[in-house]
Amino acid sequence: MDWDEASHILISVVTISLAFALAINGFSDVTPGFAGSFIGILVTVGAGFVLHELAHRQVAKRYGAQARYRAWTLGLVLAVVMAIGLGFVFAAPGAVYIYGKQLSRDKYGKVALAGPVMNFVLALIFLFAAGAFPGLAGLALTGAYVNAFLGAFNMIPMDPFDGAKVLRWNSGVWFAATAALALLMFSLTGAI
Asked: For the chain, where are the alpha helices, taking DSSP H only?
C-alpha cells in the first residue's frame, strides 16, 4: 500500500467516524464528551471500515487481480450531511477498485462478500469483548453495532454496493448474508 492509497483510507476513516459520532450524539451535542465518543467510534469504525476494504483487496489479489482503495468525495460529504440532517449515516465513503485481470462473476461475488463477512466477524468479536470486559462494554457494543450496520448496509442489492455483486453471483448467499447481518444489527439497536 502506497501513501496515496493510505491517505484515501485515512480521510475516509476519519470522515465516516465523524459521521457516526454526529449521528449517535447529535449535531448539537458537540461537547467535550463528544471527543471521547468520536475517539471510540474512530477505533470501532476504523477497524470495521479498514478491515472491510482490506478484505476486498486481499481476496481480489488472491484471484490475481490488482486492487486499490479510492475515496468517493460525494459519499464522504453525504455521510456527514445526512448524519447532521437526518441522524443516519450514508456509509459509502469509497471502494476498492479491481483492475488488471477480468474476474469471473463467481470470483467477483466472493470479493464483494469478503467485506461484509469481515464486518460480521468483527461484530461478533466486539460482542465477545463486551461480555469479557465489562469496563469496555459500551465501546465494544458500539463496535458490534457499527460493524453489523456497515455489513448490512453494504448488502443493499443495487450498484455500487457489495450486495448487488453478491446477488448477481448467488442469490442464496446474498439472502443468508443479508439476513444474518440485518438480524445482528437489529438485535443490537438500542444497545449503544
From this structure: 3-25, 32-62, 73-86, 105-132, 137-154, 162-169, 171-188
Rounded to whole angstroms, what are the CA distances from 174 to 42, 96, 169?
29, 19, 8
Check if the beta carbon of residue 66 is closer than 8 Å to that of residue 100.
yes
* Catalytic hit among 53, 79, 119, 169: 53
Q: Summarize pLDDT for 59-115 with one digit per residue, the tens.
A: 999 999 999 999 999 989 998 999 888 888 887 888 899 988 889 999 999 999 999
26 lies in which domain range? 3-188
Is position 53 annotated as part of the catalytic site? yes
Take residue 151 and report the three cell numbers written for it.
Answer: 455489513
* Domains in the chain, number: 1
Task: Count Cβ atoms within 10 A of the Cβ of residue 146 and give its class: 0-12 exposed, 13-18 middle, 19 or more buried.
Answer: buried
Among 55, 19, 57, 65, smallest CA distance to 38 is for 19
Query: Is residue 160 within 8 Å of residue 95, measured between CB atoms?
Result: yes
Q: Which residues partner with 161 through β-bridges?
A: none
